Amino acid sequence: MVRKVKKKKSGIRMFVTFLLMVVIAALVYITLGNHHIFEREYDDKTSLNSSLKITPDSSDDRKTPVLPSIESDLPVSISSDKLNSPNAILIRLTDDTVMMLKNSEEKIYPASLTKMMTAIVAIENLPDLKEEIRLTHSTFQGLYEANASMAGFQPGERVVAMDLLYGALLPSGAECCNGLVDQIAGSEQNFAKMMNQKAADLGMKNTHFENATGLQNENHYTTVNDLSILLSYALRNDTFREIFTSSRHSTQPTNKHPGGITFYNTMFEELNNQNIIGGEILGGKTGYTDEAGLCLASLAKVGKQEYILISAGAKGDHQSEQYNITDALAVYNSIRE
Hints:
By secondary structure, this protein is α+β, with helices and mostly antiparallel strands. It is built from 9 helices and 9 strands. The protein folds into 2 domains: 1-47; 102-334, DD-peptidase/beta-lactamase superfamily (Beta-lactamase, 3-Layer(aba) Sandwich).
């Protein structure tokens, strides 16, 4: 009788052990299955916006965007595929976070966005922004033939350096760039070396400058990522920021213009009083050549945050719809705070 009881208890233990093993196996299976489901859902969520992909060999130390959780919204509701510009990058300046990318490491021609580098190099190398600079006939050489943008100065005119900086960035005056170049470096070649050295110092690894104006040259190229590094840096300079965010500027009287000249920022003119919901476009620089397409570097405030957007390569010209402006309005309006 005793032996039968022991055998019975032994059988019960084996049965219970078997059930425990089945339960444990089931739990492991469910856990692993849920993990794979989560990974798949996470991948699907992140793939909704290709702009959140970060180039692994990015040249600067920006933070990659914090991808949203399953429940949260994406920080930018517009897809980069909806933009007219084939190249674009959106940066939140507060913490240097990349919010959107579109072919950001692809080589582009910067056109007049070049003048942002010209301006910051000039600001950092001119000991006195109030000094007068004389524009010579050589300052204008080749500019009219190339149909370059001009601010309205004349050969022989004596212009305060600060007014040349405004003339370079607001109406995109090529003669202003050349006047600064002659004063600082003596030649365009020497000034281009200074520009390239600054680009190297900033970590703009895919950039090379040949001139200060942005006139077309196959060896004059950059990327929207590199330009965002440049603009982010330049905006920390109070003088550059003051000029970049000005909608207009009246120069001091000169020997050729006793009443001075009033400049208007080309970006604000093309905005035509349009603005963004819950924010404001604070400043910008346009650019265009046939090869570069319509380009724009802009600064905006949405809510309590500042953002910069660089776009390039949009189809069109000065007579068409300004698709660079259209893209900026669409992107800034899509930011979710």
